[in-house]
Write a structure and sequence with these properties.
This protein has 8 helices and 6 strands; from the N terminus they run βααβααβαβαβαβα. It has about 180 residues and is of the alpha/beta class. The radius of gyration is 15 Å and the shape is globular.
Amino acid sequence: MTAGHLAVIDMQRVFADPASPWATPRYADAAAGVRSLLPAFAGRATFTRFLAPAEPAGAWRAYYAVWPFARQPPDAGLWHLSDDFAALAGHVVDATTFGKWTPELAARVGPDDRLVLAGVSTECCVLSTALAAADAGTEVLVVADACAGVDDDSHLKALQIMELYRPLVRVTTVDDLLAEDGP
């Protein structure tokens, strides 16, 4: 079993659906990576969901002016976890922010454990979560082939940026992570 706590970031219909304005082109690749990781984190995985706030405040007002389609309630279909993960998500954390390093997720990870990140999108919610957790003193591993960005270039740039935060943040792969702790 792999050490740490897995946070699966925003594997939601709004990012999986090719017709969505927020479609993540390599969502299926990230989903395959997540599915490979889940058995090693049995009972130690949290799925997150990005949700629109009831009333955007501050700079979020301008954000939702650009993306008005997203002003939907938490139970709207676009916010549901994609079908391949809905039944697998034993624990879900909702947040109206890009970063998912919430008090609830921090409590599940614990002060001396490590956080393993997978999901979408690499350059937004994964990056925001990684940096906040690292600032809190948590060791963060980002699983590159279990993440996807809005495009390949943005994905790669975000991974390169996160590598600059070593040793607080480390980029790895599914195979390397699973081999790290052995069977």
